[in-house]
Amino acid sequence: MSANKFRAWDKKNKRMWSPEELQAADWLIDPLSGNLVLGSSKDVMKDFLVLEPLRFTGLKDSYIQEIWEGDIIRFWVKDCAYIGDPPSELFVVEYDQFGLKDSRFGFHKVFTYYQPEVVGNIFENPELLTNKRG
């Protein structure tokens, strides 16, 4: 897991900030609180932007796309033959005070048996969660 890589959801402007954009705008992660703060002039923009930091898990999906906190992942069963579409399960990547939360079937173990695919995130694609079964 990469503890030092973040992107952020801008709640006011409804857009995702990449790690590079955060760095270029002088946003830093406070190591104690986990909150985003503006580096050299932290009071200048704090009221204009409401950013929710999202951690990088250190994992990538089957298409080599990075998996971030808040991502919606679809897990397909690996190496099985099906008539029609294979069964799949949607999962939201979450953290708590102990780190990456495991789903009911074990997030890290699932990579052994399932093929993960990032299909969206909870901010830009909330409609994907209305019917979690694929």
Summed over residues and divided by their number, the pLDDT gives a mean of 74
Reading the helices and strands in chain order gives EEHEEEEEEEEHE
Helical amount among residues, as a percent range?
under 10%
Give the end-to-end Cα distance, rounded to a whole number of Å.
27 Å
In short:
This protein is mostly beta strands and 134 residues long.
Describe this structure in words.
The chain has 134 residues and is mainly β. The chain has one domain. Helices cover 7% and strands 38% of the residues. The protein has helices at 19-24, 110-113; strands spanning 6-10, 15-17, 27-29, 36-38, 51-60, 66-68, 71-77, 88-92, 95-96, 99-100, 114-121. It has a four-stranded antiparallel β-sheet with strand order 2-1-5-6. Strands 8-7-11 form a three-stranded antiparallel β-sheet. A hairpin with a 2-residue loop joins strand 9 and strand 10 (99-100). The relative contact order is 0.18. The mean pLDDT is 74.
Key words describing this protein structure:
134 residues; mainly beta; four-stranded antiparallel beta sheet; three-stranded antiparallel beta sheet; 11 strands
Topology of this structure?
Blueprint: E1 6-10, E2 15-17, H1 19-24, E3 27-29, E4 36-38, E5 51-60, E6 66-68, E7 71-77, E8 88-92, E9 95-96, E10 99-100, H2 110-113, E11 114-121
Antiparallel strand pairs: 1-2, 1-5, 3-4, 5-6, 7-8, 7-11, 9-10
